[in-house]
Amino acid sequence: MINLYKFYNWANFFYQKRVPFIPSIIKLFIFLIYNSSVPYQCKIGKGSSFGYGGIGVVIHKRCVLGKNCLIGTNVTIGGKAPYDKVPVIGNNVYIATGAKILGPISIGDNVIIGANAVVINDVPDNCTVAGVPAKIIK
């Protein structure tokens, strides 16, 4: 099965070229096939992938993900009221199944986010975080 990332790349390509309707159709296709909301407006770095194709992933349209990120199933990356800013995620980040990354935060490079963690604070480079709310454990 084709990973959700390939469909995102196609939709983002057409969005960058200002081709009407096609990005929206691909986004709808992603929703129908993977039950995910990965908008073509967000920025996902090269080499990134989604576990099990990307089932249940929700990403805010203004989020920025670095290169070589691995995102598990049922991950939510989005804003938090009353803030306008959304998470910025560095390179080589592993986000395990069920993790929630919320609010105007920054996730450093080479970070591991544990399963079902709720990240609401900045995470420095080269750390492992887990828990609700997430704390640095390594």
UniProtKB/TrEMBL annotation:
Keyword field: Acyltransferase, Transferase
Keyword Transmembrane among record annotations: no
Pfam short name (any one): Hexapep
PROSITE patterns: HEXAPEP_TRANSFERASES (PS00101)
Name of protein: Serine acetyltransferase
Organism: Mesonia aestuariivivens
